[in-house]
Fold this protein.
Amino acid sequence: MSELNMQTELDLENLLPLSETLLETDENKLYMELGRRYEANITNVTESSKYRPLVHEKDKSGFEDKLKKLGIWIFKRLEIGIHNVLCSSEDNEPRNMLAEAFKLGKKNAAEVLVIVLVKYFAIASNIAIVLAVIILIIFRPVYRDFCNAWKEKLPATI
C-alpha cells in the first residue's frame, strides 16, 4: 500500500457508491452541491461530514444560484494547485496513482482524486468527492490526455 493511501484515512466504502451517483450529476448541480457542502461545513461540521448528498427543498429565493456561484469560486481557487499536484508536481506518487486508477474506471479515479485532495490540500472528504467528480466530468479524460486537456482550460492567473 502506498504512503499516500496509508496516511489518508477515509471511509472509501462510502465514497464509491456516492461517486457513482455524483458522476451522473449535471455539472451545474455539482457546483451547487460543492457550495452547499462548503456552507454546511461552516455551520455544522458533524452533519456535513457524512458522505450523502445534502438534501434541500427547491429554493426560489436565488439561494441555489448563490451556492452554485460559491461552488464555482471554490473550484477556481483550487484548480491551479490541484492541476500542479496531479500534472506538474515533482512528486510522482499522485500522478502514478491516478494513471493506474484511470485504467480501472472513473470510480477509481474519483477515489484517488479524493485521497490526493485530502492529503495535499487538507480538504474535507465530503467536499473532496464533489471536487473530484467535477474534475472528472469537466474533462471526461483518459489519463494521457487529462493533464493537457486541463492545462488548456486553466486560467492564466489565480
